[in-house]
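Field reference: "sequence" (input) and "structure" (output). Example, Polyprenal reductase:
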Amino acid sequence: RWFTHFYVVSVLWNGFLLIELFQLEFLGASLPPWIQRLHSAFGRDLQNQNTADSEHFSALLVLLLLWLHSFRRLAECLCTSVFSSGVIHIVQYCFGLGYYVAVGSTVLCQVPTNVRNGKCLLKSFMQICWYHAVGIVMYIWASLHQHRCLVILANLRKNKSGTVISLSHSIPFGDWFERVSCPHYFAELLIYVSMAITLGFHNVTWWFVVMYVLFNQALAAVLCHEFYQKTFTSYPKHRKAFIPFLF
């Protein structure tokens, strides 16, 4: 349940960055000086105006997707999930808070910000590329499945009227649970891949973020999968831990 704190931080911080980038893109505003200093520390310089326009719009879309993802996960933590008495290590807690601050800043640092556009919305929407559409569709698809899987997990601890009756673990069935033990972790990976696609495939920095999410979620999935196998003798043997049919 302390993951709720991560999403609160993400909604506030990445919402702030989203507003700042929106004002830079459409209102001709400039970023606060302290953000500009942080941005310049990464050596991001303007190379081409057309490239800058395209990258600005892609980054704006990804920040919006990241904010929506954090907002949905916050709502699920508060209104859907039923948490047990498990605890989180203080190091993991501090790292998690820093991660959700860093991930939005990473998106912002992928675009040149020493130009003030002040474009109209219609002109920006004309910059929509095929990879934007692919990334957004994949994002929606993965988000819907992640939500369904979290609802399935929550319902294992509720009766038909929605009242929590147990905090024990049970075997989940339905949706992607038929193929893997932790489909919500797999969906998380797909969500970050969809953002990489939205940035245009070529953004190496964001693919490093995707790799981190891959290894982080894979480790958590393996531990969860082993717990299921040790706890339930009747656990479905065909299920993989993380990626359907593969792993």
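The helical segments are 3-26, 33-41, 49-79, 90-108, 121-125, 130-155, 183-198, 204-231.
Confidence is low (pLDDT under 50) at residues 46-50.
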